[in-house]
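A sample copied in:

***
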Amino acid sequence: MYLKKLEIHGFKSFADKITIDFRNGITGIVGPNGSGKSNIIDSVRWVLGEQSPKTLRGSRMEDIIFNGTSHRKPLGMAEVSLTFDNSEKFLPIDYSEVTITRRLYRSGESEYLINKTPCRLKDIRELIMDTGIGIDGYSLIGQGQIDGILSNKPDERRQIFEEAAGIVKYKSRKLEAEKKLSNTNQNIVRIEDIIVELETRIQPLKIQSEKAKKFLDLSEELKKLEINIFLREIEDIKLKLKAEEEQFHVVNNQHADYLSKKQSVSSEQLKCQQKIEELNNDIQSMKENYFETTNLLKKLEGERILYKEKVQNIDKNVSRIRNEIEGISDKDKDINIELSHLLLQKQEFNTLISKKNELLVKENEKYEELGNLINKYQYKLEELKGKNIEVLNSMSSIKSEANSMNTIKENLINRIKRIEHEKRSLSNKKKDNTEKFLEVNNEIKKTKASYNEMLLKKEELIKKNNEYRNKYQDLLNLYEKEKNNLRDLQSQKKLLQAMDRSYEGFSSSVRKTLKLCKENSTLGKGVHGVVAELMTIPKDYEIAMEVALGYSMQYIVCNNEEDAKRIVKHLKENNLGRVTFLPLSNVYSQKNKKNIESKLIKHKGFIGIASNLVSTSNKYDSLFNYLLGNTIIVDNIDSAVDISKTVKKFKIVTLDGDIINPGGTITGGSYKSKTVNVFRRKRKIKELDDKIDDLNKLTTQYKNDLEELKNKLEGIDNKLKDNSISVESIKLTLLKKENVLTNIENQGHSLDVSLCNLDEELKELKSELKDIDESISKKNSFVLSLKKENEELENNIQNMSRIAHEKQNQINLLKEKITSIKIDLASLKEKRDNNKMEIKRIQDSIEVWKNNRLNKEKELSQLEKEKEGLIKKTDNIMMKINDNNVLSKQIEYNINKYTNEKDIWIKRNKELIMKIETIDNALNDLKESLHKIEVKKARLELQNDNLIKKIWEKYELSYMDALNHKSDIEDFNIASKRISSLNRELKKLGEVNISSIKEYEEVNQRYAFLKEQREDLIKAKESLNQVIKELESTMNKQFVKSFKQINENFSEIFNQLFNGGKAKLLLDDYENVLESNIDIVAQPPGKKLQNLNLLSGGEKALTAIALLFSILRTKPTPFCILDEIEAALDDINIFRFAEFLKEFTKNSQFIIITHRKGTMEIIDYLYGITMQEYGVSKVVSVKLSEVAS
């Protein structure tokens, strides 16, 4: 067997999938530090089942998944596959090629596969056990494990020797056998305790069982006698019911005859009543005509009076209008006088306006003359101002030139100051440059400190990540636990629902019937279900209701007798047993219990009438009133006895199932349901629904919490990623600051050059400043002569301005006077306009009064015409009044005539009513007789039902089932005496435990079974002890043999590698080799025998290599992976190591991770690990033998 191939994807730095093909010989893996070489051996160790993150150089298992870089996202899974050539069947599996695969997801889930088939970690470990290639074997030697081989920890050292000796599988089997032996011992102790406990129970149970059997025999005889007495009483009741039925038939016929007579007389009375109604209608019609005529007379009289009043009103209006016409004539005279006065005022206003217009024309002429004079003065003033401006412009121009020169001078001064300032600034910069150099140096130190701080922060984030992952796992365990609980509850619910659907707990005949009705819709037409299905009751009343209903719980409810007959016929034809049906059409309510609840409501212990405590559909109210309306529910037997003294005809049931029957008998004791309690099952389903809802909410909450933790973990992963980015950023900052430091040095040299240039420029500027000062002096002298000329012109301008101002004041006064005249003129015009408007108003009023007078005269003419018309209408109304008086008297005569005829018919109707009352009395007597007969029948039927219920309540037998127990009893008196005798014997037996019969059989069987089990366990214990002895013997022999061979090889190889010296292996306890410590003694050439810890690093490494080669010579492994184990050796020892390695390639395949040139020279195939992209490892390969050729 050899290693063919290694495939890695997402493991540590291997972000992309890589494949490494291995061949026989030596394969080398090389690359720079940090490129991911050691991740190769870590991946092999991990795929073979390594569970310690620390061994894989991580803090938690998720660290092995590629965590991303600044350019790549993290992966969600790591996968490694290892393929072996197994054509020689080295591995105990029937495949010529074996691939072991392991996957890990970021969520924490993992998978193991053998040839792509899912398996357990245990399967992989058993497959490679004792082959030397396991994680505890000697085929994988990583960095630091060389020291582990030579360590002071005996258990670490023993693992390699046990793997080489091939006793790991025996050791594993021994541990399993010891575990089984421990369990067997515990089981023996537990069974012996149970046997002792059962021995104390068997004898008492045997006595109780015999007593119970006698009780059952006596009870069966008593049952037979009591059932036959009940059946005899039922037969007597049926005979009485037949006699009452015959009497009912006779009375019912008499009742029918009287009904026929009543119908005949009622028909005649009805005709008489109809005639009276016809006369009443005629009389009513005539009365209505009489009232209409009377009302018409009243209406006509009212109209006559109204017309009379209207004529009087017209006379009044005529008088009023004539007075108004006279008033209009008087007002007309007054208005004409006022109009004459206004016309005189109008003439006066026109005269005043004419005078004001003449004055305004004169003042305007004066205003124009004064304006022309002012314009002449303004022209001369502008001429003087123009000359003055020319002087000012010349002066301004020269000043501007002087100012420009001053500006140049200032600029030169400022430039000189700036240069001096710049010199000072450059000197300061030079100083700052030196300080900045020191500052940047300090910043570089701080950046390095920040880098270290970021690394610490990363460690904290990793710690926090582990904490959250532990929380996540704990919560996941809780979630899975509650999910399992949910599945258990759902299974319970399904089981109960299945029992409900199959009518578990009902008799077989009831179950068969209900099943047939569901399957055959024609047969099941009208069937509602069993009584127990149609009701819901509170938990506390379940036992009471089960006892109260008894067998009637299993009655099948249907619509009517036809439905029941159809199914009974089918049961008989198919021999399917007997079933009791309850047709809803036959059910009647217990009407005589209406007031019983109000009577008992204050009674201590009273809970209610049973029918009122049931929840059901309205259509079944009568059904449950029939079944339970005669039953009272109370809290206990004391309350039941107390209430039974108050009510005699009710069955009283306690919450514990005790009964007081209407006759006074008491049934009680411990109660055990003989059938599966249907009520409890329905309630249990409801409770399970509630629990399932609660668990669904809880698992949803857990799921949400898991999601929240997952998000937090992702957040921490992101922070870790950000941390890595920050570290890179700090590195980049450090590089930039080093560049800044170089720039600061360059700036220092530039500053020295700049200071020299500024000194030369300063000298030139000072010479230029002297020339500018001389030109400014000349310009200032010319400005002084222009200033004198300007002062003379300004004096002339001031005199001319004063004269112009005086003339302007005169024209302003004239302007105010003209404005005053205009205001007076406007006021007069306004008064004249108001006068015109008043004249117009008075003229319009005269026209209005004239029109009013004409209208009043027209109105007076119309009123006189209206008065004539009203007088004519009054005469017509008087004629109509006379005609209606005659008609009213005729109608009154006819009313009296019809009233007399009606009285004769009323007398005949009374005679017929008296006759009907006589017949009704006779009918009521017959009805009373029928009712009495029905009451007797109902009482007998109730007695019959009570007897049937007694049979059920005492023996749980229906009436039809009780008939099967019927037998011939010659003398019922003797039978009654025998019943009393049996009751006495049963009483003497006292308390009887019926269940003890079955319990005794079960305990006896269990006792025998446990004794047999104890013997089997004792035999198993002896067998396990024998197996452990044989395993220890085999392990002893095999370990001693292997140890001896390894020791010989170690001594020989040590001598060859060290070119002399001695070495051997020692056991400190040869009596117990399997637990003994293994010591290594080494003496390199030229040195004394000494402690291994005192050897140099190279000597320790070579000693460990000698031990490794000695184990490989004793028991070669198919392959061996070595990670830089020769790093501490010098060149000479490297050569020896390489020679030994070539020798061992005949039996084993080697994969070596190395940096040493001497080792590389013997490698056949070489793989290079590089990081072309930061943080991502790549693989390149070359066959060295081909290169050499």
